[in-house]
Design brief:
Radius of gyration: 29 Å
Order of helices and strands: HEHHEHHHEHEHEHHEHHEEHHHHHHHHH
Shape: globular
Strand order of the largest sheet: 4-3-5-6-8-7
Strand content: 5-15%
Helix content: 25-40%
């Protein structure tokens, strides 16, 4: 009975335990109980109080089974309990049992939560930050619904920037689903070249961002290894989030030696995922004359030289392609993103270091090697590890690398003073991005779409079920087997790791939803007696800082297997349901998790880009003072900060947006 009739520690009702407690006599009428009238003397004192047991009103079935078993042992007729009313009547007539309706007793073991400040560079807070915040909140109030300025296939910011601010162009390598592009378009940027190899990510990029200025032919280029640098037009800033798996502390950190090929991940896909051998063959054909490596710092080859060894064109060497493009195009600045593990990953394996003479000037980590390569192609390099805690609802710590083109007319040793900018702590928590319970039980089409389940997939689910559509929450709740594995076999999982309303979410990574039973994916508590559930794709997008109007794509039924068997032996979801449609559903949802987990946080990118644009655009203006006598340099920093905050608000659940704005107003605008 304890699992189904009381709130467990993974339920909101029992987060800190379901307390049994003494019930004060004022809550019941002793004279109403015939048993109390029969008691005398010491026996009466024995029953002078009652023990309160917190039961869930919504659960009847298991209580019915227990009572039937007890009646059978006592050779009494069964007591039929068909609903809450009959259960209530039965409990009322049971000796020494009385129903009391009251608020549950809160546990006295609630731990103190340490409040962490997510502010970045608090010493650089603008003197007029309260004015800026008030401006953002007033504009948000006028918009009302939290929708973003840009719609589909439109520039994100052309209507919001001051005409006095110059525009800029950018190139996005390893573009993914456009996390960089969303932020830069909001700042008035124009993307003129983008490269991405994973077709589902390309589809989302084209669906949500402006591709009308992409060269050549308004299309996204594919494999970066096969792209001639001459085909990349001149631009102001290059952005890229090169693959982090070789440097992540969650793995073995193979670094530059990681030879896995990025060819698109197949979640039950058939024809769209390019095979590893085919990618390697194309790269070899395109680069059959290249043999150098990033560790050689070769600066003599022309733009067609890809600086890679054809025996190792894997994701560990993808950074060399950024260096190649920077060397040939020479944009004014770049912004790169990766994991902090880059700072500690060894530059060379033990086998390679044995044949290399190590000196004091030889790089010992991957970061030192990368920094040297960037400096050798003409850039001043800066880096800082920054958490997205202040601008999103997750604690996602990433390494951001900024490069400013060296001025050839000046001494190379005079390094410009670039400072990573101030970022406020908006104190966003899980409740600000999660769906409400009413949304999760709403089986309407609009509710499913709002969670990232497209109509095309929902129609297939309805046809297969041949019954009324299930509630959206049921598709994301974990199974009995997965909960049992978490409770009894996982060494790391505990209910405290759930995404409780008042907590910051864990980092969303590309493996979210894989091996749930091992406790590697954060789950959301569900009301008792239901099991915890996974984040919906829309919730993952909000956690990452993507606006609510970002479209999460359609379901292509030709891309997924029509089979009862799957090849993912590490995910218990394969055994959760045994029909082909649910296998398709799981494949589609995992694909969404994969793409979102590999993305960057647009609000953070917007703030960082504003600080970079201050250097590369303000210095290029002949007149650094606008018509109001204000410095244009400072405008870019403020615009980046303002845009980042606005993007954060655009990612809040519309249901909770007003409450968040009121909270921010009371914190910053009093």
């Amino acid at each position: 009975m304890k699992h189904d009739c009381v709130g467990r520690t993974w339920h909101p009702e029992g987060r800190y335990g379901s307390r049994t407690h003494k019930v004060d006599s004022s809550h019941y009428q002793e004279n109403d109980d015939e048993d109390y009238k029969k008691e005398e003397g010491e026996e009466k004192k024995k029953y002078s109080y009652k023990v309160g047991i917190p039961l869930l009103q919504s659960k009847v079935s298991l209580i019915q089974q227990i009572l039937d078993k007890k009646k059978k042992q006592q050779q009494q007729p069964k007591c039929e309990i068909t609903n809450e009313s009959s259960l209530e009547e039965f409990l009322r007539t049971t000796p020494k049992v009385q129903l009391i309706y009251k608020e549950p007793i809160i546990s006295n073991r609630i731990p103190k939560v340490e409040v962490l400040d997510g502010t970045v560079r608090s010493e650089l807070i603008p003197p007029t930050f309260d004015v800026l915040m008030k401006k953002v909140l007033e504009r948000q109030q006028k918009r009302g619904d939290g929708s973003v300025v840009a719609g589909r296939k439109r520039k994100h910011s052309s209507s919001t920037l001051s005409p006095s601010l110059p525009s800029f162009t950018f190139c996005e390598l390893f573009a993914g689903i456009g996390g960089f592009g969303i932020a830069l378009e909001r700042l008035g940027g124009e993307c003129i070249f983008a490269s991405e190899i994973y077709q589902p990510s390309i589809n989302l990029y084209q669906q949500n961002l402006d591709t009308t200025h992409l060269q050549p032919n308004q299309t996204i280029a594919g494999d970066i290894w096969t792209i001639d640098a001459h085909d990349i037009p001149s631009h102001d800033i290059l952005v890229a989030g090169f693959p982090c798996q070789p440097f992540s502390t969650l793995g073995l950190q193979p670094g530059f030696k990681d030879d896995k090929v990025i060819s698109g991940r197949g979640f039950g896909t058939t024809a769209t995922a390019t095979t590893t051998n085919e990618v390697k063959r194309r790269r070899k054909d395109a680069n059959n004359n290249s043999s150098s490596n990033v560790t050689e710092h070769d600066t003599t080859n022309d733009s067609t030289q890809n600086n890679n060894n054809t025996n190792n064109s894997g994701r560990g060497q993808l950074f060399t392609q950024i260096v190649r493009v920077l060397k040939h195009v020479q944009p004014k600045a770049f912004l790169l993103e990766n994991v902090p593990g880059l700072l500690t990953t060894p530059a060379f394996s033990s086998s390679s270091s044995s044949s290399t003479t190590t000196t004091s000037s030889t790089p010992t980590t991957a970061w030192q090697e990368i920094e040297k390569a960037l400096q050798n192609v003409g850039y001043h390099v800066y880096m800082e590890a920054i958490s997205s805690r202040g601008l999103t609802s997750q604690a996602r710590k990433r390494l951001y690398i900024v490069g400013l083109l060296q001025d050839k007319t000046r001494n190379k040793t005079s390094k410009p003073s670039f400072q990573f900018p101030f970022m406020p702590d908006l104190k966003l928590r899980a409740m600000d991005v999660l769906h409400t319970q009413n949304e999760l039980i709403d089986a309407s089409l609009s509710s499913f779409i709002s969670m990232g389940i497209p109509e095309s997939l929902l129609s297939i689910l309805q046809q297969q079920q041949q019954q009324d559509t299930k509630q959206p929450a049921s598709y994301f709740q974990i199974s009995d087997a997965q909960l049992h594995q978490l409770l009894h076999k996982s060494k790391s999982w505990k209910p405290a790791k759930l995404a409780w309303n008042d907590k910051t979410c864990d980092t969303i990574d590309s493996h979210y939803g894989i091996s749930i039973g091992k406790g590697h994916s954060q789950l959301v508590p569900s009301p008792a007696p239901y099991h915890p559930r996974k984040f919906t794709p829309r919730e993952c997008a909000r956690i990452m800082g993507f606006p609510n109007t970002y479209q999460l794509g359609d379901f292509d039924k030709t891309r997924f297997f029509v089979s009862n068997n799957t090849n993912d032996n590490n995910d218990e979801d394969n055994n959760r349901r045994d029909n082909t449609v649910d296998s398709r559903f799981n494949g589609f949802i995992k694909e969404q998790y994969y793409m979102l987990g590999n993305a960057v946080c647009p609000p953070v990118i917007a703030v960082l880009a504003g600080a970079i644009l201050e250097h590369i655009l303000s210095s290029s203006c002949n007149d650094n003072v606008d018509e109001k006598g204000q410095d244009k340099k400072e405008n870019w920093v403020k615009k980046g900060l303002e845009t980042g905050i606005q993007l954060s608000l655009d990612a809040i659940s519309p249901v909770h947006l007003d409450a968040v704005c009121q909270r921010l107003h009371s914190s910053y605008c009093q």
